[in-house]
Design goal:
The structure holds 2 protein chains of 2 kinds.
Chain A: E1 9-17, E2 20-29, E3 33-38, H1 49-52, H2 55-58, E4 61-66, H3 89-102, E5 109-113, H4 115-126, E6 133-137, H5 159-167, H6 177-189, H7 194-204, E7 222-227, H8 235-243, E8 249-253, H9 260-263, H10 265-277
Parallel strand pairs in A: 3-4, 3-5, 5-6, 6-7, 7-8
Antiparallel strand pairs in A: 1-2, 2-4
Helix pairs in contact in A: 5-6
Chain B: H1 2-12, H2 16-21, E1 28-33, E2 36-43, E3 46-52, E4 62-66, H3 68-74, H4 86-91, E5 95-99, H5 101-106, H6 108-115
Parallel strand pairs in B: 1-4
Antiparallel strand pairs in B: 1-2, 2-3, 4-5
The chains are: A alpha/beta, B alpha+beta.
Chain lengths: 283, 124
């Protein structure tokens, strides 16, 4: 007997980012309104698999999630072996915009978590015409690091294992044990220096602070979601950010942490469904 | 509090995965609770001694300083936000970590899971 197959389908596309080709892996499921999903630092598209496998959500939404270059099954660009990977706001935005163009997505909703939420808000401020709305999860204007990012890329230690042990501080004790460890596994698998390179952008670039008031939520609604157990982007950080965006809305998820769609899919579902309901219908 | 750490010491012996993860961890850790010192001496993942302070002669690699109520909250099966992790205690101002933090981070999973052993129920 053939096993029951999940509806998620994965493919590859080559994007041009910073003048170089980049082979990017993406997954999709569902039909209808396009929703582009961004993973957190140091992880990959697997964080979104529960949403992409949810028939109640995929009935009317076409979810697309992609691994950023250097992450998951996307390759680093040619010549990476002598490069120091340091993500930038500009490079990240260019990658997301290239993905929208490559797949011909018509005004997708952009849903991003952590650094993905941060870049969603940057795009809301700088490229709102490309999208129809923004769901910013565990996202805020800026937080400096409460750790040393260089810990995660050293020749005398395993950056992935250290990174996983550190980010476990951001997972709620309500998270089911299996999903807690599936979430941490992605960090354990992250390529050398990748988590550090993501965090470099996330913990040093505060340019969003001065751009939040440019966001026009009458044209593109913004809904923020934040877990009470998130130590990196706390509910206070998210509330401060939401307050600086006229018309933005915020929901605090009492029993969730920094990786809600991955660490506790059941607990996250109703909050994400509500966020989708707040977004415009398909164009 | 000394008895809680002695009980955790016994429980550690029944956690083969922690003994494996801590196989390269041979350090002395200072835990300070409301100013009272407890020195935990680990050898290759085993907690070989739990010594009360005060001591000015015991070198330690890193220290976790907190208070009794915070630690009790940390040991609840489902701690409140901030009390759910040793870095959470630091973030909410109920803990401080000093010393060779890199030694802690290199052994972070081991040490965090050791510290959380009392969450698993009665350690008496």
């Amino acid at each position: 007997m053939i096993a029951s197959l999940e509806p998620i389908v994965g493919r590859y596309v080559t994007l041009e980012v910073a003048g170089r080709p980049s082979r990017v892996y993406f997954e999709e499921a569902g039909q209808g309104r396009p929703v582009l999903c961004l993973h957190t630092a140091g992880a990959d598209t697997r964080q979104w698999r529960h949403i992409l496998n949810d028939p109640g959500l995929t009935a009317t939404n076409r979810f697309i999630a992609f691994d950023m270059p250097w992450h998951g099954k996307s390759l680093p660009p040619g010549g990476f072996q002598t490069e120091e990977y340091l993500l930038t706001t500009e490079g990240y935005m260019e990658t997301v915009l290239a993905m929208v163009a490559a797949l011909g997505l018509d005004k997708p909703i952009l849903a991003g978590c952590s650094m993905g939420g941060r870049i969603a808000l940057q795009l809301a401020a700088l490229h709102p015409d490309v999208f129809s709305g923004f769901i910013a999860i565990e996202a805020s204007d800026f937080q400096p690091a409460w750790y040393d990012i260089d810990w995660f890329h050293r020749p005398d230690a395993h950056g992935g294992e250290m990174g996983a042990a550190l980010v476990s501080a951001n997972i709620s004790p309500y998270a089911p044990e299996a999903e807690r460890w599936n979430t941490l596994w992605m960090f354990m698998q992250s390529g050398p220096g990748v988590f550090r390179g993501d965090l470099s952008f996330y913990t040093k670039d505060d340019s969003l602070v001065r751009r939040l008031d440019r966001i026009d939520t009458r044209k593109t609604p913004v809904h923020l979601l934040v877990g009470a157990y998130d130590l990196t982007c706390t509910p206070e950080d998210a509330a401060r950010t939401a307050a600086a965006i006229p018309g933005a809305t915020l929901a605090v998820m009492d029993e969730l942490g920094h990786f809600p769609m991955s660490e506790h899919p059941q607990g996250f579902r109703s909050y994400f469904a509500d966020a989708l309901d707040r977004m415009p219908a398909a164009a | 509090m000394l008895d809680r750490f002695q009980a955790a010491q016994r429980r550690l012996e029944s956690q083969p995965h922690l003994l494996r993860l801590g196989a390269l961890f041979t350090e002395t850790v200072l835990v300070e609770i409301d100013g009272a010192e407890i020195y935990l001496h680990f050898e290759e993942g085993r907690l070989v001694s739990v010594m009360p302070g005060p001591s000015r002669k015991t070198p330690w690699r890193f220290a976790l300083r907190t208070d009794r109520a915070a630690l009790e909250a940390f040991w609840q099966p489902r701690p409140a936000p901030g009390f759910h992790d040793i870095f959470g205690l630091v973030k909410i101002g109920r803990g401080r970590i000093d010393g060779d933090i890199l030694a802690l981070v290199k052994n972070l999973r081991f040490f965090k899971e050791f510290m959380a052993l009392p969450r698993q129920g009665d350690l008496a």
